[in-house]
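Sharing a chain and its predicted structure for anyone who wants a worked example. Both blocks are below, sequence first, tokens second.
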Amino acid sequence: MFTRLKQSLVIWLIKKIQKYGPHKVCISGKTYEISENVFNPRHYFTSRFMAKHIMVTSKDTVLDMGTGSGIQAITSGHAGSKVIAVDINPEAVMFAQKNVKANGLEYTVSVLEGDLFTSLDPQHKFSVILFSPPYLEGKPETYFDMALYDSDKELVSRFFRDAKEYLCPGGYVQMIYSSLAGTEQAVSIAEQSGWDHSIMARARTFTEEFIIYRLTLRQSNHHDH
């Protein structure tokens, strides 16, 4: 009951920030433009916390799943990685492309519109897949809602089932998740799909605890196709 209450508070806050918050924000010296329908990376702890823990190099090929404003893709691009960023929201794709260009990364980072892996070529393999899934309970009615709600963890389940095909041997998924939505449950979904996990970082905010996981495929999984 308490969790539900907290979730509704979080949703209410997010929607207010999106409506009245600035649509141009600066984070670590970089400017991001967004709209009411694209997650504002300045006002949500998750965006900055996740970006701070990206440890990629120019040797990595990175997939940023659910890119939103493009902050994780741009952070990876600045580290020299080749990046593909995906979002289901056409408006997010448009703003992420704008932000990539504003950061001078249009040759390093490409942004695609798609539902999880559907717009990717299965030949494409990544050494790092960044994933900031929606985690609140509810039925998405708009594109912005898709960044908030994942009913019964349906999206997380699909992600971990399909991600195996796109990971280089030795690669990993970096996922951020919230205690509000049951971190253990999300991780056990991944485990059932053949993933092992370790914790990269955790932090507590006023409403919840966020955990960044590093997930790798169990050895047998690379060979059972």
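Comments welcome. The mean pLDDT is 86.
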